[in-house]
Each structure stands twice: as C-alpha cells, then as structure tokens.
Specification:
elongated; 2 domains; single chain; alpha/beta; 24 helices; Rossmann fold
C-alpha cells in the first residue's frame, strides 16, 4: 500500500497542503513562547520523574479520584478494557453512546466491539465524524481527516446526507452541529479519552477545539474515560506548562479553545451521576521496563513529529497499519503490539532527526528507532533476505581487496540485477566509477615514480 500511496500525486498534494497549513501556524505559535527550550526541558524532566515512579503516581491518582466520588478500573489489555466498558453499559441498559475524539479508544477498537453488541456509537469530533461516516480510521493523531480535501468531504456529505455537492466547509460544519445536538440528549453514556491525569487532585484534563467533548461529558448520565497509564502528571499546576506546549506544537494555538478539568461525577444532578476511569496498560509496562525506551511513554500526542516526518508526509497514516502512525508510532508500536509483526516500522525511516527536534517533551525519537532496529536484530525477527543482504554488503564494503577485485562495470551489473530489487524499483541506483579511488591512487603514484 505504501508504494501505491507514495506515488499518488493527489493524495500527496492533499496531505502536504494540510500539513503545510499546520506548520505555518506552529511556527508562529512557537514564537510566542519566550523560553521554549526551557519549557521543553522542564516538561521532559517532569515526564521522566513520573515514569520513574509511575506506580506511585497512579495509586495517588486512584485514591484522590475515588475520594471525589469516581471509580477506577484497571485494564491489563485491550480485551479487558472493552469487556469492562461493555459491562458498564449493559448494566445501565445503555444502547446509545456519544464519543469524543480518543486515540486510546481507537487502540482498543472500541467502536467495532460496541457495534457488535448492538450499542450505537457516534463520534462527535468533526474529523472523527467524517472518517466514521466514510468507514475509515483516523489518519492522524490530531487531525483524523487530514487526508481528505474539502471536495472529498462535500462529496461524502452529498452521498450520506444529500447535501449539495458543492457544500462549503461552513455548510458542512453547521449541518454536523445540528445533526449531533439530538444525539447528546439521547445518549446514555459519553466516552472520552484524557490528555492528562492529575495525580494530586485525582482529576482528568481534556483539551479540545469544538466543544463536543464538553457536551459528551455533560449530557449523558455515565461518563467513561479511557486513558493510558502514562497520561499521569504530578500536579494541577503542571497544566500551565503542558497545555500551552500541547496546543502550540499541535495546532499553533496559544491555548486550545476548550480546556476541561473533571474531578468526579456531578453532585448536583446537572451532569453525569457516574464517572469511571479505565486505566489501560496494553503493553505499556513492557515499554516501561526498558530504561532506554521508556521515555517514549512521555508523548503528549501533539502530532508534531508526524507533521515534520518526510516519510509520513509522503505515505500518510494508513500505510502504518496501526493506531499510532508517524515516528512516535514507529517507536512504540513494536513494543505495544509485538516486535515480530511491527519491527519494519522502525526500519522504514530516514533517521533524519526532525522528529526529535520538534518534540515538546524532548523524546529522542530517532535514537529509539535505532534501538528498535537493534532489538529486532537481536530478537532474530528480521527477514532472512535482509539479514543475508546486510551481512554480505558489510563483508564486501569492509574489504578493500574485495572492492578492488572487480571493475566498475561488474559492480554496476550486480547493483542493477540484485541490489536494486531490495532497494526499490522506483529508486535510481548510483553508478559506480570504472575504477575505485584506491586504484586511481596507485596509478597516480606510479606516474609520479616514472
């Protein structure tokens, strides 16, 4: 699929254009932060401290959240998380759910599981709503419909809702707003993710730009939060650092439009009477157990690394075949879903370091891609053809005698008929000179002696 998409000029134009708009906004947004490097270092230090004492902060969050009247459920994997959510909904006889944007619920394939149980799920984020109606998955961590042009969306709404085929973005937004209003009132439960879990107050922090998250949390009687165990931050005061960093690196905003802090169910009858947080592991402790890899869990899901990645900008999100795409996805997915099936993601990278440069919490992503490659080789999950090619090329390139053994014409023949197949049919292979530098040097020396 990656080969097909990489040479789809329309697709490349759409994602390059959309990412370009974000890049322009982010550049301006960063200029507003006077001490950006200091803020990044502070955020990195806080996340490092949390990950080193994650068990302590998780227990602190659970204790405080339960004191506020909420309930915490620990889920070791995707299956247990889904089963717990289904149990909660069936217990309350709920068959309609509204859901705010959440990559964690995508990770556990929650929508499909609920639909199988005849529980209707409606995405309320505009981008998520668009891809749900199209029968697709989110394309980008921050912008789910990044791969669609306004003409694509207008055609979808014409087909799904009989809107005029030339509907403007404003027309589509207004229609969607009206379409969703009734759903909030009819839903028995609202499901959200969490940008941050605050240990010292037992609170959930959620940030969004549309207000759909607020409605998802406010109208239904049951609010379910699905959050990875790594989302913890120590204190409420830390939000003054993380919220601006997230907004600036994600969309270029000083602050996202709507920022909510929830510390438990409503006590006055004007909101959800129940609030449950599902703390999801799903392979995160596997990553946590590796000291050189664990800083990847500090990711705040801003999407900045996707926007600068030359690979993502050309092949897009779906070719990764995983929930988290781009550099951060290539780093964490092999550990969350298995090195054998996903080690190729770490090899399909330029290692240019752009992702590391833009990360607001200073995750050394390009170094971790190399660590993953090393781990894949040690675990013997690299294909036999790759191992053979690397072994023989290393043997050949490290030997001056072998390099000088054949003329340039022979080497070019080997590259053309053997190496080019592994290197890719669309790449132009370099042409080796007829004589090596060593041979030319010897000839020059002989001329000097004569």
């Amino acid at each position: 699929m990656s080969e097909k998409v990489a040479f789809d000029q329309k697709h490349r134009h759409i994602i390059n254009y959309n990412i370009g708009k974000y890049d322009q906004a982010v550049v301006k947004g960063k200029e507003r932060l006077v001490h950006l490097e200091m803020a990044r270092q502070r955020a990195h230090s806080i996340k490092h401290k949390v990950l080193a004492q994650l068990d302590k902060y998780l227990v602190e969050f659970e204790t405080n959240f339960q004191r506020n009247g909420g309930r915490v459920i620990w889920a070791t994997d995707a299956e247990s998380a889904v089963n717990e959510i289904i149990h909660l909904l069936q217990k309350e006889k709920i068959d309609k759910v509204v859901k705010s944007k959440s990559m964690t619920t995508e990770e556990i394939n929650l929508n499909q599981a609920l639909e199988k149980k005849k529980i209707k799920v409606l995405e309320t984020d505009l981008g998520e709503f668009i891809v749900q109606r199209a029968g697709e998955k989110p394309y980008h961590i921050v912008t789910p419909a990044m791969h669609k042009s306004k003409e694509d969306v207008a055609a979808l709404y014409h087909d799904q809702f009989e809107l005029p085929p030339n509907s403007s973005p404003e027309d589509i937004t207004a229609f969607t707003r009206k379409y969703l209003r009734g759903a909030y009132k009819m839903a028995g439960a609202g499901i959200t993710g969490a940008n941050f879990l605050i240990a010292d107050t037992g609170s959930v922090a959620l940030t969004e730009n549309e207000g759909n998250g607020l409605l998802t949390m406010a109208f239904p009687g049951l609010h379910i939060v699905v959050a990875g165990i790594e989302k913890i931050i120590p204190s409420l005061e830390d939000l003054d650092l993380f919220w601006p960093l997230l907004a600036t690196h994600g969309t270029g905003q000083v602050m996202t439009a709507y920022n909510s802090i929830l510390s438990g169910p409503a006590g006055n009858g004007k909101g959800p009477s129940q609030m449950v947080v599902i703390l999801l592991d799903n392979g995160r402790t596997e990553l946590l157990a590796k000291p050189r890899h664990r800083s990847a869990l500090g990711c705040i899901r801003c999407g900045a690394c996707l926007n600068v990645c030359p690979v993502y900008k050309n092949i897009g999100g779906y070719t990764y075949d995983t929930t988290y795409s781009g550099p951060i996805g290539s780093v964490i997915t092999p550990h969350l879903k298995g090195m054998r099936d996903y080690n190729h993601l770490s090899f399909a990278s330029t290692i240019c370091g752009a992702c590391t440069e833009v990360c607001p919490v200073k995750i050394p992503l390009h170094e971790m891609l190399l660590l993953n490659r090393n781990e894949a080789v040690k675990a013997d999950v690299v294909s036999s053809s790759d191992k053979f090619l690397l072994k023989q090329s290393s043997r050949f390139l490290q030997s001056r005698k072998m390099l000088d053994m054949t003329q340039g014409g022979t080497k070019n023949m080997v590259i053309k008929y053997f190496v080019s197949k592994a290197w890719g049919s669309h790449r132009v292979m370099p042409e080796i000179a007829k004589k090596s530098f060593s041979q030319l040097w010897k000839e020059q020396q002989q001329k000097g002696e004569d």
